[in-house]
Amino acid sequence: MPPRSTRSTRAAPAPAAAPKPASKRRASTRVAGASGKALKKQKYDASPPGKAAKSTTIESKYFKKDESSTLKKGRKRRTAKSKEDYEEDPDAACSDAGHTSSDVDSDFWELREQATEGKNAISQAIKDFSRKRGRKPEASSVAPQAPTTSSKKDLWREGVKTGLGPGKEVFIEKPKARDPGNIPYEDETLHPNTLLFLGDLAENNERQWLKAHDADYRTSKKDWDTFVETLTEKIIEQDGTIPELPAKDLVFRIHRDIRFSKDPTPYKTHFSAAWSRTGRKGPYAAYYVHCQPGASFVGSGLWHPEADKLALLREDIDNNSERLKDVIRQEGLRREFFGGIPDDEDQAVKAFAKQNSESALKTKPKGYEQDNENIELLRLRSFTVGTPVPDADLFSPDAQEKIANLIGIMEPFVTYLNSVVMPDLGGQDTSSIASDSVDSE
């Protein structure tokens, strides 16, 4: 008999529960040895590949632009003043005009306005120049005026259309230097083409034009440089304090500094040079030669000296005005620079003050009384003299002799200025004179 099975009273054990699926881990948590800070950075910086990052429409207050500050900055830009508006001291405003930059010549040298004679007058000067040398003026010696309507003339300009169809070519002729004709270039005279170039530059004062006429510019610049170098020898004969310097230390650049100027024209329309004990720049009084069609002239002096130099000049005028008055009363200055006035002290002072009235004070300088007997000289902020030179004189064989004679007449004036502002060793002691003179209008 088979054994009988017995039923147990115990509860049957419950079946084993299925294991829970493992939670997905981020890739950043599987990096071995990664620090918590680095993992946190990866968590927020990393974005799944191929999936554009979502942008929230809620803008954080920390990243909002301050519109009020932006408007303030914009207003600040629009109302920004030029450099000249920040000058408070009238002496300091012009103190470095002729000393800090070797490329800027004084604006004083352009104050004596003269009517420009034009190209017809320049052509007549060329004829007279040829006749003086015994040569018959030819048609080639007179540079004709360029035609105003010329297709070739304007091809160098940017944006000019040639009118050619596709596949066509146009070759622009680069202008050559102007034909000198039968007048050779010489070291001791200026060639008429030099003034003709300056006249053309005045009508086309832009960079593209000068780049296209580079040959004309270089020829004229070389003519001026050689003229200056040979003129230096004759100036040294008149004033032994002037050293023998190369043209690069005497000639001013033709490029204008337009950073703080309202005039955007890039070039000066004249050639110029200055001779002093340190060349075209420095604290010494200088001789100046200005070459411009219809407005050439020769001058000398100190244009807007620094505040301490101006204080020295005013101190000397106040204590011993006879020194300056004796200089400006000399016969040569009265004849060549003051229009032939008689030998009278008052008239000489008025003529000298008139030539420097452009920058003079309207009332009195600080530290001096209005009823000072020398107030007309004390108001001055420039001490200069100058006289025009006709264009024909620059072309004449004795051009440098004429300029040297004028410089010889101005030598006592320049010597006086240098004895005050830059006295030689062993001279008067200027340490007690204040250097921070400020004028009050």
TrEMBL record:
Domain of life: Eukaryota
Chain intervals with Low complexity compositional bias: 1-21
Residue numbers spanned by region Disordered: 1-153
Bias (Basic and acidic residues) ranges: 61-70
The protein, known as: DUF2461 domain protein
Organism: Aspergillus pseudoustus
